[in-house]
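Usage

Read records sequentially. Each one opens with the input sequence:
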Amino acid sequence: MRWCARTLDMAASLSRGRGWASVLGILMMLRVGSLMGCGSEPSSGTGNGAPGAAALTETSPEAQPGVPVAEPAPAVPVNPLEWGPRFEYEVSASDLLPATAGLSLVDAATLWGIYVGSEWKPVFLVPGEGGESAVELLRFVLALHELGGNPTAAGFEPLLRLAGEGCGLRLATADDDVGVPALEAAIRRYVNGVPHSVLTVECVPSWWPEDRDVARFDVALTRAWLLAGRQLRGEACSRLTGVPASEASNTNPCAPPAWSGPHEATDRLAALLPPSHRYFARVAALRRYLAWWVHGGLPVLGSWGSLKPGDFGPRAARLKRRLVAEGWLPAEAAAVKPSLFDEATRQAVLAWREAHGMTVRTKVDRPMLEKLTWEAGQHVALLHRSLAFTLERGTERGDAFVLVNIPEYNTAFFRNGLEQVSYRSVVGFPYQEPGGRTPIVSSTVAYVDFNPTWTPTQYVLDRELRPKASREAGFFKNNGFVEKDGRFVQLPGPKNTLGQVNIAFANENLVSLHGSPERKYFGFADRALSHGCIRVEDVEDLALRILEFTGDTLEPPIEEVLQRVIERRVVPSRTVPVYVIYDRVRVLADGRVAVTPDPYHLARKEPPEQAVLKPFQKLVAQAKKSRPREARAQ
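and closes with the structure output:
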């Protein structure tokens, strides 16, 4: 019986370190068990199911009188390269134990459960079916570098070593149509015209690993599948939902991928990606800049001097080539007078500066030139860091969610993965004193208050309100403040500091989304002007969209509630996540990429670009070695 051999093999693996005598005893038991019929040798029958010894004992039709003799069935050709030299492969406990290193208890148990359920047979390398699912997973693990993940952490390099000569990493060409169907479908669901990856895994036809590596390679593939799922599902999902990721249902995108066979393995991983247009637009942008980085880079301007309309020369020509490459200037307009800073270039510079959060002017000054000196690799590093933050924090998930991006000074409402509307916002001051910076938070909407009251903190009261009261007679009374239990409380109304709508979400800093009676600040370019809360320009519309999604109603209608200053609190009946992030990357609707300013000066604390680019450089170097000599010459 095979289960007996499996049990003894597991016992032998677990007995390591307890002395050579005990191990020798277990091995003797294994040998005795196989002689008694407890073990089984690999089958030597043909791969097409040719009859064995048991079939030869049946009565031949020729020996039965009156029974017509059936013609023999044509032999099914067997391709040794497709089946492998042997036709039966098994996974042992000694193959599984090293693979559990570095896995969580849940993932380790999942790994063992997969092979127990398959009766200790390989799950990706199935004899007779080739290795298509294995190659598909290899390609997906490689694509982690375009999704914000780390292919090295998923064990991509050991997989390529085990694949040997059969598979290799190479640079893709423009004619290649070799991608990951599940990943390409997930990207195209939100973004049209996605460029293919510049790297791909290519395996020879009928590829099969060496016999001695079949079990190890198959276990390494399953382990890579689990590690990739861990990266994609995000560790912050348990904090957001209140349910550990290991206990969540399979319908939850934060849950570990459910095993349903090798052919759906990559589909399960693709289903864990954040279902958000914003996320996939950055994936498409990273692929585009990665292609530029690999194939020669972008035109780069020096940071010295300046450029203005009417300038003529090689620097103006280089500026136009850079704007054309990144999509800010049409190629036809740039070709009219390629060395002149003309009207079309002026319009492109205006659009570029506005998207990057700079003062709108036609002059290309030093701050703009500093960003135009960025190589494609710097954009790759910044985009990868942005995607990695999305995966690690588990943001941009949910049927509907609110996304506040601090450097962009913007609040957006997403539904079904698409941005429905965005609002200009005011965020916290850059300094870190009490009531300063807006914190990075992943939470959910707790309640929506219409016509709320406001109780200022002691810091705001001492540093801001009392000085104003000393300069302006009757300040507290004129602005609706009353004293309750020794504290000043501002009554509801149009003059209330929170405006007439306050959207609260759970966080340690008591930060919320609210309106403001001081509308002029929404027109400022630099809007880091609050004490930590997020002021939203049209917060009433945002509140109505949240209640529309949750199915909750407001009685009486909002117009009457705000006009009559009626205090109402609505607790949503459905979960609406709120994500407050700090992401300087901005991808416009047409795919163009802008980098916003850094109001909190966090770029100084970010890791150097080389630390992020190192995995890319290593993969590209491997791919260039695999490129044919004639392609390298070109």
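Summary fields computed downstream for this record:
- Residues 1-8, 10-86, 237-254, 629-634 have pLDDT under 50 and may be disordered.
- The longest strand covers residues 418-428.
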